[in-house]
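Protein 1 of 2
SEQ + STRUCT:
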Amino acid sequence: MDLITMNNLTNEESISLLEDAKKLVPVAEGSVHLPLLQGKVLANLFFENSTRTRLSFETAMKRLGGEVLNLSEVGSSVKKGETLYDTMQMIDGYADVAAIRHPKQGAAQYAADAVNIPILNAGDGAGNHPTQTLLDLFTIRQGQGKIEGLNVLLVGDLRYGRTVHSLSHALGRFGASLTLVSPNSLKMPEEIVSDLKSMGCDVQESDNLSSSLESSDVVYMTRIQRERFPDEAEYEKVAGIYKLSKENLSSVRSGMMIMHPLPRVNEIHSSIDSTQYAWYFKQAFNGVPTRMALLCRSLGVDVPEVIG
């Protein structure tokens, strides 16, 4: 099973993966040994910088007894001019499944079309990041007990942010109400907003963060991505435009969750880290059980009902 966008999964399949992830939490924590993927090999193909995604994929595979091959542009034949197609042909013979992150939108689908092994999109340019979406949904469900019908605030770089592109579609399918907060230059692409509205999703757009905090169940912060801007001057105009500190939370809902795909720069002050609202570090850990569930599903391995 490939996962290139969230459209590759029905709502029922997404929930099934989240249920598997819940069962795998003790394995992700290291308290239970469950070598479901012993003898299997994951290729981690990261042509763009990554910390959490790459390491959580590697941790997930190793906790399940599998092995990992790591490839980056630096130190590989990509630096010699090898095409993505040729690289994928090699990987097809070395691994059972591959996770790929690439700066070009559409690269994950291209890779999937080139090989027979399952391909998991770990981020393609400003396109999609479906494995991040799965761990985000898992975290929201963990904190709110459900995904359906929530008020979710998506904040920051909505134009280039692949995490919010994937997540907005998924939340829309589950009936969430979305408020999109960004400067005008970083608004959610019109085609995505149009898609959300066509599926019946309640979508509001704003440039004001504070006015929407009180009614939100989830606040999903993102950093302004310097690396996506073709013009440094345009980046400087919006850098640091949205910041959350403890003082901003005096009238928010008691169960409100603050999430962030990380890395953060200055969008969330460290004073929030010790509050009940901070979910971003739990969110980062949740990449392990959700990617465990996805690896098992991609390789046709069932997760047992009772673990530990």
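Protein 2 of 2
SEQ + STRUCT:
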Amino acid sequence: MGYELSHIKSYVLRAGRMSAAQRRSYETLAEGFIVPFVPEPVDLPHIFGNENPVTLEIGFGMGIATAMIAEDNPQKNYLGVEVHRPGIGRLLWEIEKRSVSNIRIIEYDAVEVLEKMIRPSSLSAFHIFFPDPWPKKRHHKRRLITRPFTDMLAEKLCPGGYIYMVTDWADYGDWALAELSATPALKNRYAGFAEHQNWRPETKFERKGLEKQHEVRELYFIRDLV
């Protein structure tokens, strides 16, 4: 199914210095954990070496929460899509430190990854934690969680799969709630915003937002079983 996505970038590729540890991890571990972008569907069981369900995380930042969740759930696979190389280096460092084997990374634009690499009904979940809120009204078109992108997310989920999004910008939370609610294949697990999911670790970024009196809003939508 085509979605005619505009390909307006929902992120800014910021220049960031890699630490010596991040650079070493990237140089020594990338071959084993980074999946090259290809403009065609990939075989997820082949990538992970098993048939375990796959959660795709869009924009994992520094990857600490990603590594913690994967470490706590060895029976699941986690595919992280990120463009920020220092963050990728940090996640690779966490992978080595924690000896986890159920994470793979694609260093590319998530929209193109989903359009071209991920088959319909092949994912068990999406994690989208603290995406760029693009708070200025003229930049709202850059927000990731908007239709028709949410329709594509739903298509990639298997029936019963979920989308779990968290933001510390109340306005973006309201926006995302409306966009996800308007996506026909998705159903809200809650009456409005979701309860905090206890298995999701609090991140340094999240703590900084709370210190600034930002309101954390969580959303949990499920792909319709029909």
